[in-house]
Structure to design on (828 residues):
């Protein structure tokens, strides 16, 4: 439900800042942090004409500018004061508000010029009137509102206010530290926002409140001024000027709705039948304790929007849940299709009607609504009884079996197409990152105004820099296009990091964005002292946290990410993040997926991650079977991870734990290619195990059992490295370790692996001489596995020796927590 600023802030209503639409969260912020009142009388504006003229003379001497500008200020101020004296008010502010110029920022000066011409006061020029208004503003005789200030352009107002109002405050502000990554232009915009607040509300920088900046951000909504307001807020908040419960950031200020009530969710659809509207609100409120906020919004959208609002549109006056056959049949026909806008080859958009694949799920929600009302009517007949009626939708019409089968078929096809080309995507992502870094390094080494060539491309560096550190923001390539090499390197890096982390862990995108420095844990075995690296995945879809074993490749990626995001003190910045699904703010955390934009540390968005993947795919040139460019979604890596793990011998129930699925059938749905008999055999095994498992096993773990669990990690040491199989699982490859995909080969044992490869080669030669064909087949499999593991070791060493990984800390240096005791919430 949208609320106007006028509803949220009385102070803002008094001015002309109530044109922005803000969400419920913003409205709550306006109630908690109101802007300062804007009175119409204060000492400076209550001065007499002679006293104010004397003040202006002294003030004019302190303002910067040549003599021509000084003469313009004096002449313009005299004309404005004479014009304002014609208004029948007591103070200069009241007289200003009484003129039409106060609400007309565009060409406001025309009103004063017209009065001067008709009254015989001369023909003042526009620059004179504008300079005179600036002098009155600096004297604090007039305080235009924020809307007026945003609608006028003045390049000299900021230095003038700084010189006459609060020079010490501006000096302290800049001495406290200007955000270096914001650039000179963004910093100037932030200072301009601060100046406008001082003009509109009076006082100095020390007097600026949270409410002032909220009102400024709302007034600037939809303009290019919002960046400066956000940076000004961040700048002042970092210096401790605001209370601790002030909002962390003003990013997406107007779009953050927060969690709203069921009544507000239903009222989005403007239902005409009040009794049915109240019923839907009661029903959704009753369901609220068992649903997350995303599901609650979906429930209101289906019942209030797709169901009842649609019925009211096509059957005006309907007021009963007892639907006739004709009405229900017509609604089912309408809900089976939807109208969407499709872009045509010529760029135009046309409306296209297509089947609605979620129609069975929508019918299921409506049928559940009727059944719940009928069931609750038996328990509370006075409340629900009048609305109880038979459901107009049968159980067969709600079947989603075909929908699930089609979804499974599409998912399997996507996995089959993308699993073979994943190595290509990995190589392209690493190549793009190396090339982007090479361009950026060449730019940083090139002087301003020069031309440099790198990777066969020529770039021209601008003569001036907009950044405070003197480095250029953008360059021009040999085709004249403007390119920001720093931004290109950022996108290439996070695309590479996303691909690497997702393919090594199989986590969801929301879990990826919630990875923090504290998610990296090192557990030390109490007996041997061996460090086991673990990655803690925060609860997301299933509200279940889990621990994943960190492979050496994943440790390298996490080290690189932490080296990039940590601050000057070596710690990862703690930032606030807004959960767009639950419409709530999470506690500030040292998130890994963050970057600095306009001087403010921000969480990287879902769209940015997807854009990085799309750019990498475009550079790879990969296509599907139809020849169209191949697309990757973050969830595709999850399907690929699970499918690849099961194909390489990982038991499905272990894959279920790693993936964080609540049901093993969900895990099996992710496996795109797997023998049917193996699936059935494993499901039978799980059923037998669950039926035979005694209830005594569901109890607290004893010290002996914990020692046995720790002993699993002690016994996994092998001649070639470590066995990475999960606890409680047997070796499915009968200790054929060279062939095993979960063997983690130690770089120190490379010579032993080379010796094994030589021995296998000799044995294959012997088998070929003797004609042992069966022996040749088995030995060839082992030889291929040994070659693959040697290639993996060589690739790891090459990455560590390359410039990309130079100076990257080891895993022991990046872990946020070290545990020597039993993890309380670890999966055992």
């Amino acid at each position: 439900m949208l609320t106007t600023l006028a509803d949220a802030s009385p102070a803002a209503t008094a001015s002309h800042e109530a044109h922005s639409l803000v969400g419920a969260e913003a409205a709550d912020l306006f109630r908690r942090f109101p802007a300062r009142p804007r009175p119409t009388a204060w000492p400076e504006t209550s001065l007499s004409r002679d006293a104010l003229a004397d003040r202006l003379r002294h003030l004019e001497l302190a303002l910067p500018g040549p003599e021509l500008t000084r003469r313009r200020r004096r002449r313009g101020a005299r004309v404005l004061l004479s014009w304002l004296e014609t208004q029948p008010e007591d103070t200069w502010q009241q007289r200003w508000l009484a003129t039409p110029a106060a609400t007309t920022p565009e060409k406001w000066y025309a009103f004063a010029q017209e009065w001067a011409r008709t009254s015989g006061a001369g023909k003042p020029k526009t620059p004179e009137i504008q300079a005179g208004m600036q002098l009155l503003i600096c004297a604090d005789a007039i305080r235009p509102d924020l809307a007026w200030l945003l609608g006028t352009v003045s390049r000299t107002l900021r230095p003038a206010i700084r010189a006459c109002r609060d020079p010490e405050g501006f000096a302290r502000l800049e001495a406290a530290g200007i955000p270096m990554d914001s650039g000179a232009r963004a910093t100037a915009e932030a200072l301009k926002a601060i100046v406008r607040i001082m003009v509109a509300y009076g006082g100095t920088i020390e007097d600026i409140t949270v409410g002032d900046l909220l009102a400024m951000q709302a007034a600037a909504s939809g303009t290019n001024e919002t960046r400066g307001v956000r940076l000004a807020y961040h700048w002042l908040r970092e210096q401790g000027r605001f209370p601790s419960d002030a909002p962390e950031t003003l990013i997406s200020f107007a779009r953050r709705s927060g969690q709203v009530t069921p009544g507000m969710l239903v009222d989005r659809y403007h239902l005409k039948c009040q009794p049915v509207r109240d019923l839907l609100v009661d029903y959704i409120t009753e369901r609220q304790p068992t649903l997350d906020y995303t599901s609650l919004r979906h429930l209101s959208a289906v019942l209030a929007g797709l169901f009842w609002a649609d019925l009211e549109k096509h059957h005006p006056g309907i007021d009963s849940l007892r639907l006739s056959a004709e009405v229900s049949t017509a609604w089912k026909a309408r809900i089976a299709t939807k109208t969407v806008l499709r872009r045509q080859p010529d760029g135009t958009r046309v409306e296209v009607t297509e089947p609605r694949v979620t129609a069975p799920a929508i019918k299921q929600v409506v049928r559940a609504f009727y059944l719940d009302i009928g069931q609750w009517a038996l328990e509370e007949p006075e409340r629900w009884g009048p609305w109880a009626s038979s459901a107009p939708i049968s159980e067969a019409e709600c079947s989603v079996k075909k929908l699930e089968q089609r979804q499974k078929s599409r998912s399997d096809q996507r996995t089959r197409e993308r699993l073979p080309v994943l190595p290509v995507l990995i190589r392209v992502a690493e190549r793009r990152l190396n090339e982007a870094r090479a361009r950026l390094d060449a730019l940083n080494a090139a002087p301003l105004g020069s031309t440099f060539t790198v990777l066969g491309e020529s770039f021209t560096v601008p003569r001036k820099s907009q950044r405070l550190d003197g480095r250029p923001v953008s360059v021009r390539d040999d085709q004249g296009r403007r390119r920001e090499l720093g931004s290109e390197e950022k996108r290439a890096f996070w695309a590479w990091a996303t691909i690497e982390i997702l393919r090594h862990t199989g986590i969801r995108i929301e879990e990826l964005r919630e990875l923090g420095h504290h998610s990296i844990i090192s557990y030390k075995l109490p007996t041997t002292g061996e460090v086991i690296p673990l990655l803690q995945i925060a609860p997301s879809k299933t509200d279940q946290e889990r621990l994943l074993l960190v492979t050496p490749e994943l440790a390298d990626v996490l080290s690189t990410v932490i080296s990039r995001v940590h601050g000057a003190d070596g710690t990862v910045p703690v930032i606030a993040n807004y959960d767009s699904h639950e419409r709530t703010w999470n506690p500030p955390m040292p998130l890994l997926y963050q970057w600095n934009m306009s001087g403010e540390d921000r969480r990287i968005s879902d769209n940015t991650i997807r854009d990085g993947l799309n750019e990498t795919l475009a550079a790879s040139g990969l296509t599907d079977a139809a020849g169209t460019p191949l697309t990757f979604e973050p969830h595709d890596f999850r399907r690929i991870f699970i499918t690849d793990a099961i194909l390489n011998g990982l038991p499905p129930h272990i894959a279920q734990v790693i993936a964080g699925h609540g049901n093993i059938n969900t895990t099996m749905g992710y496996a795109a290619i797997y023998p049917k008999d193996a699936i059935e055999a494993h499901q039978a095994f799980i059923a037998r195990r669950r039926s035979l498992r005694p209830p005594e096993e569901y109890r607290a773990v004893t010290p002996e059992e914990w020692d046995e669990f720790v002993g699993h990690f002690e016994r996994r040491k092998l001649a070639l490295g470590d066995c990475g199989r999960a606890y409680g699982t047997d070796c499915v490859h009968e200790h054929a370790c060279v062939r095993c995909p979960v063997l983690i080969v130690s770089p120190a044992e490379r010579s032993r692996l080379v010796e094994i490869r030589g021995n296998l080669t000799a044995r294959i030669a012997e088998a070929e001489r003797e004609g042992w064909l069966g022996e040749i087949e088995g030995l060839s499999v082992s030889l291929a596995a040994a070659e693959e593991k040697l290639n993996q070791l060589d690739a790891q060493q090459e990455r560590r020796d390359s410039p990309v990984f130079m100076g990257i800390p080891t895993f022991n240096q990046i872990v946020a927590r070290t545990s020597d005791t039993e993890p309380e919430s670890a999966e055992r």
Q: What stands out?
A: Residues 262-399 form one domain. The chain is about 50% helix and 10% strand.
